[in-house]
Amino acid sequence: MKIVNFIILLLIISCSSKKQVSQYLIESDNYLFAKELSENQYEILKDTVEFKQFLENELPFKTKINLTKVEIKKQLSISDKPFPYFFVKVTNASGEISISKWLEKKGNKLYFIENYENEEASMRSNYTICKGKEKCGPEFFYTDSIKGWNCSKELICLVGQNDSIKLPCQTYKTVILRD
């Protein structure tokens, strides 16, 4: 009997110690962005023209950009145990600039997370801007020591980037706080 109670206690502790990303999710139409219709087929529920204009106006670009494409992407994380994740990717016509943001999946619905209470929630709430043409696109790293977005599969962009080195792909992160 003591062994059974001990095993149950271990199970409860191990389950409660894992962070559930969905704890940061607010299931509200305000945060609902899209729904998955089938594997790799999505319906965007927000006005994409309005969303592109919002990003063009709110993000700190030195010159005006013209965002042309909004799409939902599903990729595998770069980690010891890769897992699928979803994000919205907005690009300009040349593809040189892409803006990405995590989408949390609940059932067949894809939601934005707007929560900055800790690092785990914040990395899913920020916008990642990738600038470059070669091998430049959003990647999500999730290892013991590194968690977060990058615009290359090369970790040099995340750790110890030297300003004197001109990388072919640049990564910027920002938040947009809404009223």
Description:
The protein has helices at 2-17, 48-58, 119-125, and strands at residues 32-38, 41-44, 67-76, 78-79, 84-92, 97-106, 109-111, 127-132, 139-142, 147-150, 169-174. The protein has three helices and eleven strands; from the N terminus they run H-E-E-H-E-E-E-E-E-H-E-E-E-E. With 179 residues, the protein is α+β, with helices and mostly antiparallel strands. The strands form two sheets. Strands 1, 2, 3, 5, 6, 7, 8 and 11 form an eight-stranded antiparallel beta sheet that branches. The chain is 19% helix and 36% strand.
| Mean residue pLDDT | 78
Helix content: 10-25%
Percent of residues in β-strands: 35-45%
Any low-confidence stretches, pLDDT <50, length ≥5? Answer: 1-21
Largest sheet: 8 strands, antiparallel
- Gyration radius, in Å: 18 Å
- The termini sit apart by 55 Å
Give the tally of β-strands.
11
Bulk shape: globular
Pairing-aware structural class of the strands and helices? alpha+beta
- The total count of helices amounts to 3
Compressed to H and E, one letter per element, the order equals: HEEHEEEEEHEEEE
